[in-house]
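**Backbone shape codes:**
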Amino acid sequence: MNFFHHFFIGFIGLAVLGALLNWFANPYGIYNPPFIKNLNSEKSAGAPRFFKPLQVSSLQPDVVILGSSRAQVGLDPSTLPNTYNLGIPGLTASELLGYGEHVLTDTKATRLIIGLDFFTFDDAQTVSGSYELAVLGKNTLFRAIPETLFSFNTLNLSRKTFRNSYKRKSSLHLSNGLYQLPLPSGHLPEDLILETVKLFTSPGGGYRGQKQFKKSLSKLGNLLEMANLKGVTVELFISPTHVALVEALDVVKLWNVYENWKRQLTHLAATQKVILWDFSGYTKLTTVSLANSQTVFFEGSHYLPSIGRQLLTIINKNIENKNIGQRLTPENIIEFLNSQRGARIKYRLNNAEDVERIRDVVCKNICN
């Protein structure tokens, strides 16, 4: 009896000590311990799918940015007051709905800015394992206490936080949700673009297979309906990518699917009375040459925060800049798609060498 008594006291003591260490290290950035530089200043938060919903519940922002890694690295929340970036790499439509419902349920946010990407709306996609571990919904911070204070996983992240703080190794994840993607070095800009095209068009990539998006779009519709019921303003935008990825869509025979996706998005946005911006396709911004692409993009898929600030200015002020993109409505969608086909012809005439290189990369993937 005495042994078990001492064992129980010792176990409780170790659990409390571990919880205190996790609270002080605060790797997820959700508690408010004393801040000590070189001790708990540089966080190691782990998987964004897990820690970001915790952070947004802790910070209680007025504005939340949702989207894939394109939004995560390109949209600086400091551009707008009291804003958090809940961008998630490789976001699926199911995850978009789940995180959106979480924001609407467990925060005071009155505005959502949602970045949309073609690869997100693929009915065949399944959610990530780390998403299934995320704690979502009402009273998230309370329900997450067993994991955030008493788990070995968090203790390991606390250890890394202490180590990174001591070594002054800054985290790439900022406390407002922005991910500071380093600008690639040692590679030619055109090679980075073409490598992105190769990634998307390789077997298993986002541009391979027959794409269906009816179920995925319905999940976005569910999120918009919930936001409307709660009186939360929503603004949608299609993310810009280098035009090489748009050209690749045509080569892999997905251009018609891509256009239909935009038609359906436009109809959905109009039905739910939300604004839809399109910054993708053929614009002055996206058609920068392969050689000069790093003035706009990290590589083919992710735009620079300097570009993101322009997008947020357009969205926030509701002022069109057709060099960057425009609003889509049921009244202008047909004309818009026709104009994009014309812009495609013009781009190909003026950039024949770039187009040939893009098509060569895609053809090697789809022919092998």
User: Anything to note?
Assistant: The longest helix spans residues 2-25.
